[in-house]
């Protein structure tokens, strides 16, 4: 990148209260999270510093709680306003868009026509399939109809969160509405950012990967990016040595809990759960469940509401 | 008959909502509120371990995360008969206080502001004049001509790019927008500042609750984050709280007052009649007596006639909702025979929401209900701030019963609850100093039990009811703020609060009904929470005994 462009960008950043050092630290962290070589740090920085044409994004909401959108909006790196105004072009997103009703519908219609084959479709939420999709409608059309129209026209479909990936909570037994994940409901291949909610850094990593290398990251057999879901929580857990030593918490609030012993006996699902929570942590590296003394509930695994419950029983 | 106007989807809310109004002579003469999604979490809970219920129900909503988690854990604790330690109560209140701060800031700036603020007009503002205006209304640390010039330039670059993204197709230039360009620019700058600030505010949840959204720290009997009761973590919490509270005092409240001064006529639009608050933020073991936010019900705007609210008097009516006809029943006695059908607002069923009633009457819940109940109960801080706001805007008490009053009440309680939090942090510190670090009380799962948790959360009165049998969940029900506020008509034909509030709303241009959005958004609708009730196709009947 040209030097003056860089300087201008850093000046801007500093006016937001972010130092050059903090920004490069974030880019280094993101590059490492994405599993890229450290020589790529400057390229990653450039994606933020001099975005070219902002890639159009259509963000659909189906059967969900909006927690995944919120997770992304509640992270400081990159600032949500940069993501919305400078990096991506969010053509449709019901939670943040100014337009409503007919005008909102029009935005969706125009975006998929104008950017056919080019836009990134992010889906948050599961699709109701029973009773002709009667469980969920937007503008008089069912979730299923909308997904069938929009998803095939996208350059890539990124499922954000357990619901869009695998059906999520509404698909837990007895799954009253016949809710399914997007890939399953439409019979298409999707990038699955699993978790309830997933760590927003993994969403940013996936998008930066796409902007930088022009392709989606490598995925595991469940559609999850390997850079984030390649290892178990257990294998990366800072409390792992307590497990090896046989030092366990057996009651919440106990002395062992205060000392930060292993939560295996409290029902921790870390050994069966693939995710990078111990490394990436949540809310800009503030904390993660095990560090807060709570067992992992396995939220990045398919059907965890059935497979991992009852949560507080030992594996 | 007037002209029918439908807005679907209603955006800048959580979930899928459809609003239909009938406009005659430039005013709304009738209105219908319809929830358009159904998830079924209550049925999914049946037969599961009661300890898991809080984690499941928290997924009702990720915008107002934590609140169902809290209400649910209280319901299970009531059913199993465990009392939590002092520190657990304080930590739960701190998390709840942080939730109020976060939720209301985001609502005001990111979900509601664009109904009052014309971002496109901000491009015409004079940055120097904007700086003077900003200095006059507040002592925000961000300001000055260069700052506003930079924000304006950024908006201009965005508009010039031709990719308008989330700003595309808004009601820009609508005659109902009344702010001068300078006020629009100031508010747009604060929209961006608030977006950054709220990410920090959410970190308070992560400190004692692992992450946000969807915390992982509450357990039946207390909280798990005992290891975080150390000076470093508490100081971090304190500094994030301080930064947020500064923003509330120096930016949010001044903006609220500045914007409100241009829209005083909205102090006579969008009012309702009855108000209910369960109250919350227990300052000791007893409920509701120790609640900082008091419990109470006000009927027909009669503040002097304030009464204690009793959960026994709640009933849910399904005559106009997609369930088989039956009389209105208490959640613990309820029987529900679901029946999906076409959308028939005129004479039939038209929503997935049931219609909760208190002694047969619809009630508004949320910030305005809490402000009125607190005011009528004589809670000192509420009284002072409310009187101050009325004086500053030079409007009568009656103006509170309105869209403007509801929006002001949200800001007022953000300020007042935020002020209270510092004392709780100090209380926690004192306990730790004394050597009391208890965060959990052990207990045993009974074979049978029944309990409920009543809370007042950002969007209003929330109740969870649970019945345990054979150590498993037999039945689970929740009645949430958005069903109270956005529910449909009942058997007696009484309109739900949003429907009532919309009547009389002026609509200058039925093709761009921004005025309708103002009132609907003032309730901060959250649809995913409300539509979790029952399978509409299995025709199962759920019977729950009264306590």
Which structural traits does this protein have?
heterodimer; A: about 325 residues; alpha/beta; two-stranded antiparallel sheet; 16 helices; about 10% strand; globular; B: about 550 residues; alpha+beta; Cytochrome-c3 Hydrogenase, chain B; three-stranded antiparallel β-sheet; 14 strands; disordered C terminus
Question: What is the topology?
Answer:
The complex is a heterodimer of chains A (315) and B (547).
Chain A: H1 3-15, H2 20-33, H3 41-49, E1 56-61, H4 67-73, H5 80-87, E2 89-92, H6 101-114, E3 120-124, E4 127-128, E5 137-138, E6 141-142, H7 143-150, E7 156-160, H8 162-166, E8 179-180, H9 182-186, E9 191-193, H10 200-213, H11 226-229, H12 233-236, H13 240-245, H14 255-259, H15 277-280, H16 304-307
Parallel strand pairs in A: 1-2, 1-3, 3-7, 7-9
Antiparallel strand pairs in A: 4-8, 5-6
Helix pairs in contact in A: 2-3
Chain B: E1 3-7, E2 17-24, E3 27-35, H1 41-45, H2 53-58, H3 67-80, H4 86-112, H5 127-137, H6 145-160, H7 181-209, E4 218-219, E5 222-223, H8 231-262, E6 275-277, E7 280-282, E8 291-293, E9 296-298, E10 314-317, E11 355-358, H9 367-377, H10 380-393, H11 403-433, E12 448-457, E13 460-469, E14 472-479, H12 481-486, H13 497-502, H14 514-522, H15 527-530
Antiparallel strand pairs in B: 1-2, 2-3, 4-5, 6-9, 7-8, 10-11, 12-13, 13-14
Strand order of the largest sheet of chain A: 2-1-3-7-9
Largest sheet of chain B: 3 strands, antiparallel
What is the molecular shape of chain A? globular
- Report Rg of chain B: 23 Å
Instruction: Identify low-pLDDT runs of chain A.
Output: none
Structural class of chain A: alpha/beta
Q: Please state the CA-atom Rg of chain A, rounded to the nearest Å.
A: 20 Å
Overall mean pLDDT of chain B stands at: 92
Biggest sheet architecture of chain A: 5 strands, parallel
Share of residues in helices of chain A = 25-40%
Helix fraction bin of chain B: 40-55%
